[in-house]
Design brief:
Elements (H helix, E strand, L loop, with lengths): L1 H19 L7 E4 L1 E2 L7 E2 L1 H13 L3 E2 L2 H8 L9 E8 L3 H12 L5 E4 L12 H9 L3 E4 L12 H19 L4 E3 L7 H10 L3 E7 L11 E5 L7 H17 L2
Parallel strand pairs: 1-5, 1-10, 2-3, 4-5, 5-6, 6-7, 8-9, 9-10
Length: about 250
């Protein structure tokens, strides 16, 4: 009986060790707003700082999507624990609230801008986007009008993908990456992105991103307003790690 209990305990320890051991692939975090708004997509500044402090304490180094792309193509190496921090939509608080915290913890991010919302209430202006670039922020596209590409015609998808890139590049230079609104896309969407000259795109699929991943369907770890503090953030990272190990 004692041997059976010991064996069972050993198996449980092995399983737990396997689950928490880092899996293959780079995590990409998906945020929206850093504010006090009572919204599922808003993380408070205090919560965000706690998360950035945790990442720094655990030895993570924030990189850009461009660095990840060139790593996949064998052109550069990455730090031991790379992570990518992204923001969707282009809210003004990405500059005013999030960026100072990221700089405090030696982090950087990619901001996916809805080109049709630039300069409107609560959203970044072109001047603010330029300031973020100077402060090491990568700028990507998030369509012109934030429509769900999975529910629109190929012609409409093409306009949203191509026009947003053209508008952004008039102000910020080359735009190489895209994020699908609501995480939705089709094989046609991926083909349109390739034709438009994008190098990759972030989806709503959960998990990590190992070498060999489809760069037009990069997986992300969604970070909504946490109900259970830092523990919830850590569990989301763990879940993505488990998905990666299971090949999900």
């Amino acid at each position: 009986m004692n041997r059976l209990m010991a064996l069972s305990a050993f198996i449980v320890i092995c399983i737990l060790s396997w689950l928490v051991w880092p899996g293959p692939g780079v995590p990409i975090l998906a945020y929206h707003q850093i504010s006090e708004a009572d919204d599922i997509y808003s993380v408070t500044a205090a919560q965000f700082e706690e998360q950035m402090s945790y990442l720094q304490d655990k030895g993570y180094t924030a990189i850009s999507l461009e660095q990840l792309y060139y790593y996949y193509n064998g052109k550069i190496s990455l730090p031991d624990k790379p992570i990518i921090i992204t923001f969707d939509d282009g809210y003004e608080d990405n500059l005013l609230a999030a960026l100072p915290i990221m700089e405090k913890y030696n982090m950087r991010s990619t901001v996916f801008v809805v080109s049709g919302l630039v300069g409107t209430s609560e959203y970044l202006s072109w001047q603010q986007i330029a300031e973020m670039q100077v402060r090491h922020t990568e700028i990507g596209s998030h369509t012109v009008s934030h429509i769900s590409l999975g529910d629109t015609s190929p012609d409409q998808q093409r306009r949203e993908v191509i026009d947003s890139k053209a508008i952004l590049e008039q102000h910020v230079g080359s735009v190489k990456f895209f994020a699908y609104p609501f995480g939705q896309f089709t094989p046609i969407t991926e083909e349109i992105l390739r034709e438009a000259g994008y190098l990759g795109a972030c989806s709503g699929i959960a998990g990590l991103n190992p070498k060999g991943v489809d760069t037009y369907a990069l997986k992300r770890v969604n970070v909504p307003h946490p109900k259970y503090g830092l523990g919830e953030f850590r569990l989301r990272l763990l879940r993505a790690n488990i998905y990666s190990k299971l090949g999900i």
